[in-house]
Amino acid sequence: MTNAIESMPWGTFEGEPVTLWRLVNANGLELDFTDWGGRLVKALVPDRSGHLDNVTLGWPTLDDYVAEHGGTYYGALVGRYGNRIGKGTFTLDGKTYTLELNNEPGGIPCALHGGLRGFSLRMWKCVREIHTADKVGLVLEITSPDGEGGYPGNVTVRATLTLDNNNVWHIGWRATTDQATPIALTEHAYWNLDGVDAGTTILDHQLYVNADQITAYGADMIPTGELRDVTATIDSLPLITSSIMSKKLAAGAHSIVLDVKIGSGAFMKTLEDGQKLAESMVRIGRACGRNVVAVMSNMDIPLGFYIGNALEVREAVEVLQGHGCPDLTGVCITLAANMLHLCNGWPIEEATKQAQEAISSGRAFEQMKRWIAAQGGDAAVLDNVSLLPQASVQYELKAPQAGYIHHMDAQKIGESSAILGAGRKTKDDVIDPAAGIVLKEKTGAKVEQGQTLAVLHTDRPETLADAERVFLEAIRWGADAPAAQPLIYGIVTE
What we know:
25% of the residues lie in helices and 31% in strands.
């Protein structure tokens, strides 16, 4: 069998004829492309036994794509910018550009994949067909005038798509422009390696990526610039369950209380996912003969008022002394009561009273001091928290407007504290124990313009501007008081 390339009509788009090209290599592998969006609409590839099947998702006709699914990116060549740009603005060479807004992850508008008329929804021009002894392919071209979608500069992009006889599909990109402009080009195929008609989904697949770190992103799906160690970012329920429970079981505990955080500041962003994880861990623990409960707590707002290493120790002392933040104290009481319930068999009401009494009597605080002393620490610090590390700069961050705080993205606030020195972007970064944030107002508060929202603690004053910007990006404002949120979503016991 020899390789081949053929073209055929595939309908019309806005009065222009659309062409479909079929690339077939010497092994029978087939890739079908159209000049509308430069889309891959079919990928006929062999499985391990040589059986050919289509593995890319899409629809059979142009009308299906345009009429029902024209806003999607299945198989398309994406540009000018293949990702989200937060709030549709960017600054280049001192000038701020405003882009078309076409996406709202987490209710936060952004520009996605080039805007309303990105490359995925436009006609590309085939400027050359490639047909040699060892490969077939196409060279597709598109132009974007200065100002299109809000982007600067006239841009011409060429995508070279080839299929060789080694079953390799190669995409080569070339872009030229007459002024500085952001460019991020990509191909946006969706895959089902079982075959699109197999009746399975992506959830039945396993993907291995050979990487040490990933880029973090916030609730708005915008990359934060933070690099995270992949060991802390496993996105597989069985692997997360086994990672957590193996440590708990290996430690020898007979009773285990798990605090499953759910929300913007947690790994599990939705209640549904959090509940699945809680149920999975409880099920594993009970199968191993342990008493296990999982408390599902709200992390869609910051818990407590203090963020940062020394600052959080200070807040822990306040909780144990009976004058801590009500929401943090409430979670601690709930966790302690469930542990007393598991260990002693007390009804949860009695266990709750005992946990509260341990704090009010001072017994909990004294026990913490004994633990610290037993581990070689200086328990005197708990009686005099001024001995804890303190930042040289304490900057009052003011509210830019009046209104109610409707939402505080806990993850972004954590990112703000990391900028100040309280966290790492890479595993080699050094943490400053004095750095962090003390919140003065939280979700639900009515705030006046110019009122202090938070105090930023740092020994790196040059970081204040970036930390303030990220902190303010975390806040959504409203004219009316938001609905109250539960502190505890529920408790999983089986």
